[in-house]
Specification:
Chain A: It is a multi-pass membrane protein. The complex is a heterodimer of chains A (327) and B (295). By secondary structure, chain A is mostly helical. Helices cover 71% and strands 1% of the residues of chain A. Chain A has one domain. At the A-B interface, helix 6, helix 11 and helix 13 of A face helix 4, helix 9 and helix 11 of B.
Chain lengths: 327, 295
């Protein structure tokens, strides 16, 4: 997965702000923050929270695909399993929402470590098939395990009190909790991408044999980014379970893995902001076309085909080309 | 009445037979994937949808044209193959110069479109396909009852698998194919039309999926979703076997079907995941797959 943009060369010509972040990135983050603070007063808060959860999911996925060059076709496993664990922790164990989310995230991290350490033994499309197959195994496990509630899922998950103090039943209050999680996740991913670790990842993506010959332990880097990506996908899934008060089989099914690939591809893989845009577009499409049944699936398939054939940079990738700066 | 490990023999052999039938489908489908992968270097995610197309093809022939099962066995696979050839010529061909992962994403999108259309127009409840009279009834083998319909699936897929093996390993066309897999530029330099070979290979692999679909129609309900979950198991089969060898794909397919059947007897809860567990073990011990050449 090569990109036309050369991040290192571009960073050299981009003016850098106070925080070590290029000024235009700082401006976009600020604008995004202002918009998202205002959003619950302009839009339906539940809808925006859904977008935020999927945007974080897609950004976590993009960390692996866009920067690690690894196409996982089974990210629903981490998203969905974290969602189940978080729902179970909040409902049955009575944990506060932040602890429930942490529990879900930890399980996603362990799962990512287990599956990742097996999957990185193969490359390319085999890697994609292995991750997909393991995710299907997690799906069958969820279908049969007692705590997941089978076809019903875990319903009526209590939103609870944040830190045992702040009542989250009001969607407006919950929104700012979700917003904080989203921003923490996005900024962490931004930090990872722009760290020396992130630079090594890009080197592995561009030319793995060369990275090996330079003395990097490539498999450790790949496993690390796999676990990080699975963990952050887990944060998104766990949060989603609290927001919708529901964890279901949809979250662990392969269609979910496909959706996150689509969001990332459409928004622009290997860009910082692309997955956010992609998630917003896809979630909006699902929301407004929900009454058309299977036409949503057909529409997603068509977007896939068009994006792969003639729009591989994605929305944000094309914008980045126009303004000649990495986004 | 004797018992094996506390299991009545009818149950044991019955499940082994079911396993062998599943194995037949794994073998034919993974063979198609392997043939396509060998020359095109893409993983054909549309394979599950094309298997479904085969089953629907048989159903449509019967319900719209009154054409029966035995004709469908010969008519439907070439038709499904031709739809594959159209896809290859119009869409997939444009991606050969790119990373192979784009081929996976494109065929995934195509699968969504095809399955979505069939769900929209035929629903998801499943359509019955009555087995032809010849396949009703069966033989009592003494230790178990062998229904004709099941015996036919196993025999037919074995024949198709071995014929495919023969074409690829023993004929001149197969020699071109294997040569083009190794070095397409060189084969082209010898005056062989490699792009045509690629198109026909894709069509052939897809036709195999269509053939499996026709075989599945009388056994399972004809349903738009029938290929989706199956194809993921087949991916695991392909990872276990590796795609280097034709006979390897066939053996792995039937073998894993049998193992799945055995699991259903001794540990039913594990039957849905046993193939994935085996995949994990194979990745630990022999990452290239049982018959694979490279990682």
């Amino acid at each position: 997965m090569t990109t036309d943009t050369n991040p290192i060369a571009m960073a050299a010509i981009t003016s850098v702000g106070a925080a070590g972040m290029p000024r235009h990135h700082l401006a976009i983050f600020a604008a995004l923050f202002v918009f998202l603070v205002a959003a619950p007063f302009l839009l339906y808060p539940i809808f925006v929270m859904k977008v935020l959860c999927f945007a974080l999911f897609a950004c976590a996925f993009n960390l692996l695909l866009g920067f690690g060059g690894l196409l996982s076709f089974g990210h629903a496993a981490y998203f969905g399993m974290a969602s189940y664990v978080s729902a179970h922790a909040a409902k049955v164990w009575g944990l506060t929402p932040e602890l429930a989310i942490i529990a879900g995230t930890l399980v996603a991290a362990v799962l990512g470590l287990a599956i990742g350490s097996l999957a990185i033994r193969r490359h390319g499309i085999y890697f994609a098939m292995v991750t997909l197959a393991f995710a299907q195994m997690i799906y069958f496990f969820s279908l049969q395990a007692a705590f997941t509630g089978g076809e019903d899922g875990i319903q009526a998950v209590p939103r609870g009190h944040l830190f045992g103090l702040i009542d989250l039943r009001s969607s407006e209050v919950l929104y700012f909790f979700v917003l904080a999680i989203f921003f923490a996740g996005i900024l962490l991913i931004y930090r990872i991408i722009h760290s020396p670790f992130g630079q090594v990842l890009k080197a592995i993506r561009e030319n793995e044999p060369r990275a090996i010959s330079l003395g990097y332990r490539v498999n450790r880097y790949k496993l690390a980014v796999f676990v990080l990506s699975a963990t952050l996908a887990g944060v998104a899934g766990a949060t989603k379970a609290i927001v919708f008060q529901l964890a279901s089989l949809t979250d662990v099914y392969w269609t979910m893995s496909g959706e996150v690939v689509l969001m990332t591809l459409l928004g622009g893989m290997g860009t910082v902001f692309g997955p956010i845009v992609g998630a917003a577009v896809i979630v909006t499409m699902q929301n407004y076309l929900a009454t058309f049944g299977d036409w949503v699936t057909i529409g997603q398939g068509i977007i896939f085909v068009v994006a792969v054939l003639s729009f591989r940079e994605g929305i944000v990738g094309v914008l980045a080309k126009w303004i000649r700066k990495p986004l | 009445m004797f018992e094996l490990l506390g299991i009545p023999p009818q149950v044991l052999f019955g499940q082994l037979l079911l396993g062998l039938i599943n194995g037949s489908f794994y073998a034919v489908l993974s063979l198609g994937l392997a043939v396509i992968f060998g020359l095109l270097n893409i993983i054909n995610f549309t394979h599950g949808a094309q298997y479904m197309l085969g089953a629907f093809g048989a159903w449509m022939l019967l319900n719209y044209l009154g054409v029966g099962y035995w004709w469908a066995v010969f008519i439907v696979p070439p038709i499904v193959g031709v739809t594959g050839i159209v896809l290859e010529r119009v869409l997939i061909r444009r991606l050969y110069h790119l990373d192979h992962l784009y081929g996976l994403l494109l065929t995934f999108g195509l699968a969504l479109i095809i399955v979505g259309f069939f769900r929209q127009f035929f629903g998801v409840s499943g359509l019955p396909y009555p087995p032809p009279p010849l396949l009703n009834g069966g033989y009592n083998l003494g230790f178990m009852y062998l229904p004709n319909s099941r015996a036919w699936v196993i025999v037919a897929s074995l024949i198709v698998c071995l014929a495919t093996w023969f074409i690829i390993e023993k004929t001149r066309l197969g020699a071109y194919l294997r040569a083009a897999t190794e070095n397409p530029t060189m084969v082209g330099a010898f005056g062989i039309n490699v792009p045509l070979l690629v198109t026909l290979t894709y069509g052939f692999g897809v036709a195999l999926a269509g053939f499996a679909g026709v075989l599945a129609a009388p056994i399972y309900a004809v349903n738009p979703n029938m290929g989706a979950d199956l194809i993921i198991v087949v991916f695991a089969v392909v990872v276990i076997g590796g795609m280097g060898s034709i006979l390897g794909s066939i053996l792995t397919g039937f073998g894993l079907g049998l193992i799945e059947g055995l699991t259903r007897v001794f540990y039913p809860e594990g039957s849905a995941v046993v193939i994935f567990v085996i995949m994990a073990l194979v990745l630990l011990v022999k990452p290239a797959g049982l018959f694979g050449r490279s990682v």
